[in-house]
């Protein structure tokens, strides 16, 4: 699951993006659909699952702990769960590849089972902080031995019964929230998470959908999410909506390449995920929602995006949790906007698959764009819609979103941009380059 051999790729500018695109299934929802199906009693079916490396790492781990997971020739995934409390001792280490979501959520699940699991990952994942989940899960009774700095590889010994806790999130993180709620599934009593700043709520929605007793209340301290433990989950038929984080690249690409006019179908627009749409509209992007509907308990619409003249903004810091994965794409939009866009309050970007503040600042600077870093964000000065110089060689640092963002940046650059490794796109969007070729065929190159 690691990219031993880098695949460099040089991207030149192209003509307008036109036509329809259907983005792959939401990564966050795909992980959760496999995990909860694997804990239900009976057969669940999942349609539209993201078949990227991160989600496949979750599938492999759930199989290693006893679930039966098969992909039918119809593309539907069928999962026979083991029941809450029924996870089995994995025979070998769980290879999480590049996936922080798999790691942190599965650490939660293992915490309240009487099994021991070793978590390993690639060079990027092995640098990421796990202390944020180690702390609360240890309080619930997990015995965790991590590598120095609270990193992978780590070994986690779960416990039955685990101890229910009430935990206020010190960082706005849906992964930490979800790890605790998943640990709470097999913990007697009520486990509570208080989030002062709301983060993506897919776990809450899906746990309730599977029949867990879960309540969400607003309080002076923030949202209080309570889960009753020793739950019984009922199998479900799930349709995974399209991933707004994948749609982000096409929203920005169509906005910056003159003449573009596309429809991105089936985009999940859960308000805890839709911050980029708000930010791009503040910049003047032309994005209209069509056919708003509900898919798998989540709001979804088709988005028509046309090229537009973008203006710099100060990105409202309160949007950060709802667009945390979209900042690299936003910085590319900013590089083509009129004026200097300033994004602050986004320090979490430093602990993603790469340090996304430094990675994007370095990549854009190498392509002739003026950037300046803050500890918690970035300022990017745009061209006012003209091509950026381009011509740089970009280090992607095993980070899929850096690779895709800089591929988009190249689409209206004066000189081609080289990615040192395009391989990481497979973690979340294996068909990214094929889709780009369909929207903006190379023959149309300017
Ligand atoms: C995710 C939560 C976010 C996000 C990640 C997926 C999830 O991470 O960046 O890509 O599925 O819960 P944090 O919880 O670290 O903010």
UniProtKB/TrEMBL annotation:
<feature type="binding site">
    <location>
        <position position="356"/>
    </location>
    <ligand>
        <name>phosphoenolpyruvate</name>
    </ligand>
</feature>
<feature type="binding site">
    <location>
        <position position="32"/>
    </location>
    <ligand>
        <name>3-phosphoshikimate</name>
    </ligand>
</feature>
<keyword id="KW-0057">Aromatic amino acid biosynthesis</keyword>
<feature type="binding site">
    <location>
        <position position="100"/>
    </location>
    <ligand>
        <name>phosphoenolpyruvate</name>
    </ligand>
</feature>
<feature type="active site" description="Proton acceptor">
    <location>
        <position position="325"/>
    </location>
</feature>
<keyword id="KW-0808">Transferase</keyword>
<feature type="region of interest" description="Disordered">
    <location>
        <begin position="1"/>
        <end position="24"/>
    </location>
</feature>
<feature type="binding site">
    <location>
        <position position="27"/>
    </location>
    <ligand>
        <name>phosphoenolpyruvate</name>
    </ligand>
</feature>
<dbReference type="InterPro" id="IPR023193">
    <property type="entry name" value="EPSP_synthase_CS"/>
</dbReference>
<keyword id="KW-0963">Cytoplasm</keyword>
<dbReference type="InterPro" id="IPR006264">
    <property type="entry name" value="EPSP_synthase"/>
</dbReference>
<feature type="binding site">
    <location>
        <position position="401"/>
    </location>
    <ligand>
        <name>phosphoenolpyruvate</name>
    </ligand>
</feature>
<dbReference type="InterPro" id="IPR013792">
    <property type="entry name" value="RNA3'P_cycl/enolpyr_Trfase_a/b"/>
</dbReference>
<comment type="subunit">
    <text>Monomer.</text>
</comment>
<feature type="binding site">
    <location>
        <position position="28"/>
    </location>
    <ligand>
        <name>3-phosphoshikimate</name>
    </ligand>
</feature>
<protein>
    <recommendedName>
        <fullName>3-phosphoshikimate 1-carboxyvinyltransferase</fullName>
        <ecNumber>2.5.1.19</ecNumber>
    </recommendedName>
</protein>
<comment type="pathway">
    <text>Metabolic intermediate biosynthesis; chorismate biosynthesis; chorismate from D-erythrose 4-phosphate and phosphoenolpyruvate: step 6/7.</text>
</comment>
<dbReference type="GO" id="GO:0003866">
    <property type="term" value="F:3-phosphoshikimate 1-carboxyvinyltransferase activity"/>
</dbReference>
<dbReference type="Pfam" id="PF00275">
    <property type="entry name" value="EPSP_synthase"/>
</dbReference>
<comment type="similarity">
    <text>Belongs to the EPSP synthase family.</text>
</comment>
<feature type="domain" description="Enolpyruvate transferase">
    <location>
        <begin position="14"/>
        <end position="436"/>
    </location>
</feature>
<feature type="binding site">
    <location>
        <position position="325"/>
    </location>
    <ligand>
        <name>3-phosphoshikimate</name>
    </ligand>
</feature>
<feature type="binding site">
    <location>
        <position position="128"/>
    </location>
    <ligand>
        <name>phosphoenolpyruvate</name>
    </ligand>
</feature>
<dbReference type="InterPro" id="IPR001986">
    <property type="entry name" value="Enolpyruvate_Tfrase_dom"/>
</dbReference>
<feature type="binding site">
    <location>
        <position position="175"/>
    </location>
    <ligand>
        <name>phosphoenolpyruvate</name>
    </ligand>
</feature>
<feature type="binding site">
    <location>
        <position position="352"/>
    </location>
    <ligand>
        <name>3-phosphoshikimate</name>
    </ligand>
</feature>
<feature type="binding site">
    <location>
        <position position="27"/>
    </location>
    <ligand>
        <name>3-phosphoshikimate</name>
    </ligand>
</feature>
<feature type="binding site">
    <location>
        <position position="173"/>
    </location>
    <ligand>
        <name>3-phosphoshikimate</name>
    </ligand>
</feature>
<keyword id="KW-0028">Amino-acid biosynthesis</keyword>
<comment type="function">
    <text>Catalyzes the transfer of the enolpyruvyl moiety of phosphoenolpyruvate (PEP) to the 5-hydroxyl of shikimate-3-phosphate (S3P) to produce enolpyruvyl shikimate-3-phosphate and inorganic phosphate.</text>
</comment>
<dbReference type="InterPro" id="IPR036968">
    <property type="entry name" value="Enolpyruvate_Tfrase_sf"/>
</dbReference>
<feature type="binding site">
    <location>
        <position position="175"/>
    </location>
    <ligand>
        <name>3-phosphoshikimate</name>
    </ligand>
</feature>
């Amino acid at each position: 699951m690691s990219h031993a051999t880098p695949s460099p790729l040089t991207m030149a500018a192209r003509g307008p993006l036109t036509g329809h695109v259907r983005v792959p299934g939401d990564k966050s929802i795909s992980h959760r659909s496999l995990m909860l199906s694997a804990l239900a009693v009976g057969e669940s079916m999942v349609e539209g699952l993201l078949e990227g490396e991160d989600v496949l790492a979750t599938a492999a781990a759930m199989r290693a702990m006893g679930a039966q997971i098969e992909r039918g020739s119809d593309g539907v995934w069928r999962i026979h769960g083991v029941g809450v409390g029924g996870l089995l001792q994995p025979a070998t280490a769980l290879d999480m590849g590049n996936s922080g979501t798999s790691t942190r959520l599965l650490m939660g699940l293992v915490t309240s089972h009487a099994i021991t699991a070793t978590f390993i990952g690639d060079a990027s994942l092995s640098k990421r902080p796990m202390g944020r989940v180690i702390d609360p899960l240890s309080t619930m009774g997990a015995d965790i031995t991590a590598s120095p700095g609270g990193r992978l590889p780590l070994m986690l010994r779960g416990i039955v019964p685990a101890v229910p806790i009430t935990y206020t999130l010190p960082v706005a993180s849906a992964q930490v929230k979800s790890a605790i709620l998943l640990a709470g599934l097999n913990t007697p009593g009520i486990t509570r998470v208080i989030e002062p700043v709301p983060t993506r709520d897919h776990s809450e929605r899906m746990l309730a959908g599977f029949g867990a007793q879960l309540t969400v209340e607003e309080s002076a301290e923030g949202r209080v999410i309570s889960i009753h433990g020793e739950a019984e989950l009922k199998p479900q038929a799930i349709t995974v909506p399209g991933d707004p984080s994948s749609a982000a690249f096409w929203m920005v690409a169509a906005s910056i390449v003159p003449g573009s006019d596309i429809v991105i179908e089936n985009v999940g627009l859960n308000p805890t995920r839709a911050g980029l749409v708000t930010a791009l509209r503040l910049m003047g992007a032309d994005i209209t929602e069509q056919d708003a509907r509900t898919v798998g308990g989540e709001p979804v619409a088709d988005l028509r995006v046309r090229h537009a003249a973008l203006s710099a903004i100060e990105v409202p810091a309160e949007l950060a949790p709802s667009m945390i994965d979209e900042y690299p794409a936003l910085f590319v939009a900013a590089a083509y906007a009129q004026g200097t866009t300033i994004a602050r309050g986004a320090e979490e970007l430093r602990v993603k698959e790469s340090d996304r503040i430094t990675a994007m600042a370095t990549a854009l600077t190498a392509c002739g764009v003026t950037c300046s870093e803050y500890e918690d964000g970035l300022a990017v000065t745009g061209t006012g819609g003209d091509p950026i110089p381009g011509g740089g060689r970009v280090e992607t640092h095993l980070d899929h979103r850096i690779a895709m963002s800089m591929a988009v940046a190249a689409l209206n650059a004066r000189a081609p941009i080289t990615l040192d490794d395009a391989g990481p796109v497979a973690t979340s969007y294996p068909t990214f380059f094929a889709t780009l070729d369909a929207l903006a065929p190379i023959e149309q190159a300017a």
